[in-house]
Design goal:
Blueprint: E1 6-17, E2 20-31, E3 34-38, H1 45-53, E4 60-65, E5 68-69, H2 74-78, E6 81-84, H3 96-106, H4 111-124, H5 140-152, E7 158-162, H6 170-186, E8 190-195, H7 198-204, E9 207-212, E10 215-221, H8 224-227, E11 230-238, H9 241-250, E12 254-259, E13 262-268, H10 274-282, E14 286-293, H11 297-308
Parallel strand pairs: 3-8, 3-9, 6-7, 7-8
Antiparallel strand pairs: 1-2, 1-4, 4-5, 9-10, 11-13, 11-14, 12-13
Helix pairs in contact: 3-4, 3-5, 4-5
């Protein structure tokens, strides 16, 4: 897959529920890859996904998914996307293989091919021994796996997952995340995962879009290489901080005073922590506390939400 292909393009999207603005002027442009849509409950994640799927029509703005207009080419678009909704959407009384095959036929596959593909995807998600059981007798974790199989049966180019580990026990959650990661590593389709669970996003995604109150609060690359570009330190200093801070800024490192005598510093990973002590000696300050910190997705998330709330 050409990673430079734009899979989603949105310009000024707005959507209202009974006068309440649920999506507020969202513009977004993303390439192929694995994206996390992260935000607190009520941030507008599910609403945005339903707009991208063509289930909801925006009040204003325009957009495309996989090059297809989200309001004018809905039927064409749905041939190329898979969707795992948060809520159960299984048809009562149908066994898993019949249901999966049926969804394949609805997407345009010949009946024999759809049945063959149904067996393949049910095996892939770990339901091969339960494929003839009625879907409504499945446990919560099995239902999540079945919904994933239904979304994969027609081999989509883009997969939307809305809270894919909802209701799963820790072991089932880990297995589901490993399945998502395996799909991503095959690089045959792009994925967008909507979740309020930071560990799920951090484990599976390459990029994250943080949503809050219907607006984009931040966009970040969360790949391992990007995380290791800087080392971050907490310091407590004694003396006049001004010369120390000016020296740090002159090196184009990042420094933030957090409290009286305390600061956070981000410096290139190839630099030694001894450089900080040398600067402290040069500017006549004492380092009383020194701690290497790891910036997590949680830090990024909290900061983005606070800034979008005006804190």
């Amino acid at each position: 897959m050409n990673t430079m292909n734009k899979i989603i393009e949105l310009q000024g999207i707005e959507f209202y529920y009974d006068g309440f603005k649920a999506i507020n002027n969202i513009s977004l442009s993303i390439n192929a890859g694995v994206y996390g849509l992260l935000g607190p409950n009520g941030a507008g994640k599910t609403t945005l996904i339903k707009i991208l799927l063509g289930f909801l029509t925006p009040k204003s703005g325009s957009g495309s998914v996989l090059g297809h207009n989200i309001t004018k080419e809905r039927k064409v678009l749905r041939r190329y996307i898979g969707y795992v909704p948060e809520n159960d959407t299984l048809i009562s009384g149908m066994d898993a293989v019949t249901l999966t095959s049926y969804l394949g036929e609805l997407s345009g596959m010949p009946k024999q091919e759809a049945m063959k593909r149904a067996h393949e995807v049910l095996y892939y998600v770990g339901l091969e021994e339960s494929r003839y059981r009625k879907a409504d007798t499945y446990s919560a974790g099995m239902k999540q796996r079945l919904k994933l199989a239904l979304a994969l049966v027609h081999d989509p180019k883009l997969l939307f997952l809305d809270e894919p580990t909802s209701g799963m026990d820790p072991q089932g959650r880990k297995e589901m995340l490993d399945l998502i990661k395996d799909i991503a590593q095959k690089k045959t389709m792009s994925i967008m995962i909507s979740s309020h669970l930071l560990p799920d996003i951090e484990y599976t995604c390459q990029h994250v879009v943080i949503l809050n109150k219907g607006t984009i609060a931040a966009e970040h690359d969360i790949t391992g290489d990007n995380r290791n570009t800087f080392n971050r330190y907490d310091l407590k200093l004694k003396g006049n901080l001004a010369p120390f801070m000016e020296k740090i800024k002159s090196l184009h490192w990042i420094i933030e005073e957090t409290d009286k005598g305390c600061c956070k510093i981000a410096m290139p990973a190839e630099k030694s922590s001894l450089d900080l002590f040398a600067i402290a000696l040069e500017t006549n300050v004492q380092i009383r506390h020194f701690k290497l910190c790891k910036t997590t997705l949680e830090d990024t998330f909290i900061k983005a939400i606070e800034e979008s709330n005006g804190y």
